[in-house]
Every structure is written in structure tokens, then in C-alpha cells.
Amino acid sequence: GQVVDVVSCGTGMGALLLQSRPLFLAFKWVGAAYLVVLAVRLWRDAGSSPEPSLEASRDDLGTTRRPFLRGLVIDLANPKAALFFTSLYASLLPAHLDVGEGAAVLGATAAIVYGWYFGLAVVLSRPPAQRVYRRATRAASRVAAGVMGALGVRLALT
């Protein structure tokens, strides 16, 4: 989702969000509503979901895609990520880049984003980290639900 934000901002979508108040408000309200709904579900289901299998069968393919799609929707529904990258690019880059320079900036930013999430995946795929996560799942889910709900409310109010 953030790579989509990076590419779309690098190609002008962020500027469009900055210039189009109705489009920005639509993204804002959809993102806020989705975060609040997700927070309520996460709070309600904290600690009650079954452990996912690390070896998904073909029958489980739909359920293994669901967390990815949920994360993608959360990321794409958040206008602040797009505005962050737009602001970053506007403040750090020269006004005119040629295609090669723009591609290099987008590639470097995408590599940083992928590197960060890859690192998280590697750390959280280790048994010691998984044991800690399993012990803290209910509390972590409740904290995450509170944070998501607060972010959704804050997004709606700002």
C-alpha cells in the first residue's frame, strides 16, 4: 500500500489530493470510518482468533490473503500516507526531475518501505518473537484497536 502511495505521489496523486478538497475529504472520511470499524472488530475479537498456520494449503489461500488485503485497504484508505510522501517529495526534491531521477527516487523509496516491512516479517517469523507475540496477543490487539480507533477519530476530526 505504501509503495502504491509512493508511486502515486511521485506521479502527481498526492498533489491532486492537496488541490482537491472534495477528493481529500472523501479519502479522509472513508479512511476514518474504516479505521474505526477495524478497531471495533479488533477489540471485539482480541485473542479469540485461531492461530494461523504457517503452511497454508490451497484450501486456505483465501484466508491467507485476507490479512494482506485488509492491510492494503487500510494503507490505501489513509490520505495521510499519500500526503506524507507528497510533503516529503515537495520539501526534499528539486521542482523538476527528469524521468530517470524520478524513477530512482521512487525506486529508493519503495526499497526503503519494502526493506522495513521485510525486516519486520523476518523478526516476527522467528519462534522467540512468535512466543512473545502469542503471550501478548490479547493485550496487543486491544492496544492496536485503541490506537486504530483513536487514529480514526482523530482523522475524522482534523
Salient structural properties:
mainly alpha, 80% helix, 7 helices
Q: How many E strands?
A: 0
Percent range for helical residues? over 70%
Shape: flat
Report the biggest beta sheet as strand number plus sense, adding barrel if it closes: none
List the secondary-structure elements in sequence, H or E: HHHHHHH
Query: What count of helical segments does DSSP give?
Result: 7
- Average pLDDT: 78
Distance between the termini: 23 Å
**How large, in whole angstroms, is the Cα Rg?**
18 Å
Low-confidence stretches: 53-59
- Portion in strands: under 5%
Description of the structure:
By secondary structure, this protein is an all-alpha fold. It is 80% helix and 0% strand. The protein has helices at residues 2-10, 13-19, 21-44, 61-76, 79-92, 99-124, 127-157. It starts with a helix and ends with a helix.
Secondary-structure blueprint:
Layout: H1 2-10, H2 13-19, H3 21-44, H4 61-76, H5 79-92, H6 99-124, H7 127-157
Helix pairs in contact: 1-5, 1-6, 2-5, 3-7
What is this structure, in a nutshell?
The chain is an all-alpha fold and 158 residues long. It has helices at residues 2-10, 13-19, 21-44, 61-76, 79-92, 99-124, 127-157.
